[in-house]
UniProtKB/TrEMBL annotation:
PROSITE patterns: PROKAR_LIPOPROTEIN. It comes from the Bacteria. This is Fibronectin type-III domain-containing protein. InterPro entries: Ig-like_fold. The lineage of its organism: Bacteria, Pseudomonadati, Bacteroidota, Flavobacteriia, Flavobacteriales. Gene3D superfamilies: Immunoglobulins.
Length: 227
């Protein structure tokens, strides 16, 4: 009888172990290669006066069997995407225009994905000098809900970059109405600004970046809610 019980217990253990399959591999984020970050992309095949074909390249990432390339026109915020099993893909994009790009890594056996860093670049055109890249919003994230500090303030954080590295200033627009109004200006080294807020209120903000040549770029309007 004891032998029978022992065999049954062993069988149950083996059956339970058989159900604990290894977790599917989680893909890792790819390292971007080209176009370079905050650069002017001079490598491309001209299609016509307005478009050129650019080949995007990245390094293979672990546990990955396919990639999705994401390219966004920063002037129109219109995205282009393409899926591939390779570590490069070509897209036709506008000349003389700022873009962001990133790569998502996927594995067919996992429902999780990984995203690379996001790089900015200008696709080469007839420009002699380029406007700054639109400021990239860091905090608060658009659509988020945040808590004010003890001074009844929220700190706005962003980042700025420019091909010629000649950013002069950032102008901050902020209001509980859309469009927001100008509330201050910072120099190129300052990418944060504290604003007074009220609870249970939605606020709107954007950043205008200006370079030494007087060229400007607009981040677009973002919003957040205060608890």
């Amino acid at each position: 009888m004891k032998r029978l019980l022992t065999c049954m217990m062993v069988g149950l253990l083996l059956q339970a172990c058989g159900k604990n399959d290894d977790a599917p591999p989680v893909p890792e984020g790819a390292n971007l290669v080209f176009p370079l970050e905050n650069s002017e992309c001079n490598t491309g095949v001209s299609i016509n006066e307005n478009l050129s074909q650019v080949t995007f390249e990245w390094q293979a990432s672990a546990n990955t069997d396919s990639y999705t390339l994401n390219v966004v026109n920063l002037e129109t915020n219109i995205p282009q995407t393409i899926s591939t099993a390779a570590t490069s893909a070509s897209l036709s994009i506008e000349k003389g225009t700022p873009f962001s790009w990133s790569v998502n890594s996927q594995n067919a056996n996992s429902d999780q994905t990984a995203t690379s860093e996001t790089w900015l670049f200008y696709n080469a055109g007839s420009h002699i000098n380029y406007a700054p890249f639109p400021a990239q919003i860091i905090h608060p994230v658009s659509g988020s809900t945040v808590q004010k500090n003890l001074s009844n303030e929220v700190e706005l954080d962003w980042s700025g970059s420019d091909v010629e590295n000649d950013i002069e200033s950032f102008e901050i627009f902020f209001s509980d109405q859309n469009p927001p109004v100008s509330v201050g200006t910072t120099d190129r080294a300052t990418t944060e600004f504290a604003v007074a807020v009220n609870s249970s209120t939605v606020y709107y903000w954007r950043i205008i970046t200006t370079d030494a040549e007087g060229n400007t770029s607009d981040s677009g309007v973002f919003d957040f809610r205060v608890l």
